[in-house]
Amino acid sequence: MNDQHTSQSKPALMVPLPQLPKAFWAFHDQYYRAYRRYAHVHLGDPHAAGELVHQVLMHLAMNWAHLMEEANPAASAWALLKESVAGELRIQGRKPAVPETAMLQLVVRAVLESSRQEFEVIESALGLYPAIARLPERQFDVMVLRYVLGSSTDTVARIMGVTEATVRSHCHFARRKIARELGIAFATDCDDEE
Hints:
Elements: H1 3-9, H2 22-43, H3 46-62, H4 64-69, H5 73-92, H6 104-112, H7 118-123, H8 128-133, H9 137-148, H10 153-160, H11 164-182
Helix pairs in contact: 2-3, 2-5, 3-5, 6-9, 9-11, 10-11
GO molecular function, one term: sigma factor activity
Pfam family, one: Sigma70_r4_2
Organism: Streptomyces violaceusniger
């Protein structure tokens, strides 16, 4: 063995990670599961979703001080997650897996619960998938978080960094748009709460 070989076999210096504030860990505990489930719905792969969410949370951890300076940190973190999911889908050259997942059936059921013509619409459920996919981005997110992932209105509001009234409004208009596209009656007396 020569000195050159010996120096190459020495382990690299370990750089300690900075101590993360308790607020980050509280954020992590509050949002990790929802972020991972949201990413899984779009990517269609639980492992890829976990990796992506880990990367997002590590980015947030390393930039925690900057995030805390934002006017709405939860909304900024949500935007980063959505950008990361969209970027991963672009890299893979594909669209979100939501229409292909069985979980979307929960949205179908939830949308149909307020309709008298439930069974008629079930027969044409294929029309529902494109209708949901055509929703504006925030309405789509609310429908996924609310009905696919089963999150309460207040949880959706916290995740997206918006008010509960905004979540209820997005839900109302999404359901109304879907009903209009499918040609079914929209139950205006339906409470968008659980």
